[in-house]
Amino acid sequence: MKDIDQLAIALYQLKKLEDVDININIPVINDTLRDCVKLNKKIISVNKSPISFHGNRLIFPHVTLKMGTVKNGCFENLLFKLNDFAKNIKPMDLSFQPVILKSPANNYYFCEVDDDRLIALSKDLDILLNDEMSLPKFPLSKDNLHHVTLGYKYPDDLEIAPIIGELIASFRADRIQVSVKGKFGVCIGVLKTFNL
Question: Which residue of 38, 50, 54, 192 lies most exposed, with the fewest beta carbons within 10 A?
Fold first, then answer.
C-alpha cells in the first residue's frame, strides 16, 4: 500500500528529527464528505485519478490551510503553536462553489471556497509557523482559493468526468488536523487533531 509506505516514511523522518512534508487542514465531514466520496467515484470511473477516497486508501477530502516542509526537529514546537492557535478559532460554516477543472492545466477537479476567513487563517499560519515550516509554494489567496480536491485528470485522459458544475454540501468546520502530505497534495492519515 503506497499510503502506508508514505506515512511510515514520514513518521520515521519525524522520529529522526528530519524534514517532513505536512498538510494543516480542515477535514471535510458529514454530508459534504459523502458528496466528495460520490463525486470522486464518478471521476475514477472516467479518469485514472490517483486520488481516491475509497477502499484501502488512507487519504480523505480536506480544505488545506497550509502545507509545506517542517524543518528538522521543529514538529513538536509546531504542534504547541497550533494548539494555542486553534483555541482562538471559532467553528465556521463553509460553502463551496460548483466543481471545476482547475485552469490553466485543467488537471485537478476542485470545489473552491471563497472565504476571507480562510485566507486570513492561512496568512496567520504563515507568520506563526515561519520558524518551523517552509513558506508555501502556492500561497492560498483570492487568486489561489482554498478548495477540496476531488480528483486528478492526467493529460492523456481524453474524457472529462461528468461532474463539472455539481455542488457539494456546506458544512461546519469544527477542527483542524495535521496530516502527512502525499503526492498530488493529498493528506495521508492524521497526526494530530485540534478541536475548535
Answer: 54
Burial class (CB in 10 A: 0-12, 13-18, 19+), 180: buried
Rounded distance between C-alpha atoms, residue 116 and residue 146, angstroms: 10
Instruction: Name, in order, each residue with C-beta under 8 angstroms of 170's C-beta and a sequence gap of 6 or more.
Output: 32, 93, 94, 95, 96
Q: Taking a C-beta distance cutoff of 8 angstroms, is the pair 123, 25 a contact?
A: no
Question: Contact at 8 Å (CB) between 168 and 61?
Answer: no
Measured CA to CA, the distance from residue 169 to residue 131 in angstroms comes to 36
For 4-49, write each residue's pLDDT tens digit: 899 999 999 999 999 999 999 999 999 999 999 999 999 999 999 9
Helix and strand numbers (H, E) in the chain are 4, 9
